[in-house]
Amino acid sequence: xxxxxxxxxxxxxxxxxxxxxxxxxxxxxxxxxxxxxxxxxxxxxxxxxxxxxxxxxxxxxxxxxxxxxxxxxxxxxxxxxxxxxxxxxxxxxxxxxxxxxxxxxxxxxxxxxxxxxxxxxxxxxxxxxxxxxxxxxxxxxxxxxxxxxxxxxxxxxxxxxxxxxxxxxxxxxxxxxxxxxxxxxxxxxxxxxxxxxxxxxxxxxxxxxxxxxxxxxxxxxxxxxxxxxxxxxxxxxxxxxxxxxxxxxxxxxxxxxxxxxxxxxxxxxxxxxxxxxxxxxxx
Length: 283
Description:
This protein is of the alpha+beta class.
């Protein structure tokens, strides 16, 4: 095989550039298999240098089947790469695999993709080919058994890919159009209002502690008596809890009502919000 033909073949197999392929073939004395290994090692080296950079762009992908629904983010450095065909194809297959392993990160990275290589190997190859830091971010899987899972995409890039995604699980036996409308609106509400938990008890104590520190700092130099400061502080913390618990938030479709009021107004025998996940690129 002529040298130029070997370079072409190596490029098609590895996705690497012309110069990198030519150099790897020289180093391997024309052996394509050895050249692929050389490129893989160099790709890892290049990837490790890029990992110190910031990746605040990317896509959120949602995948579902009859059993479960999953959401995952794939991050990169620029919006241009987030719309790159190779990046998007990798993201789509990654999401399918993530759903099959129920968002288990260790299993995900070791899972073989369609080309026979692991997710981790393909990720390193993609970093080397595109030339940006690319990372697999947050993910979550919700079980569809005995519940209905609704999804919502905001700032859509392509089908099931966006900049902000939401999945929410509702436990109900109701199959009416009324519950479908509510589920869709609820996922939109979560996208807009960004709750920390379903109810007050579910808010991470660390988030409350941080808010308490901010409030104390804010009131420290107010000159008010300690008793008044304590009352103001308690009021601010209670408001923080209400504003960040889904059931106590003002319903975005009708702000005079809270989410729990809307659920009550539906007058369904059973309607329980079981879980949700909201992922926004850059947050």
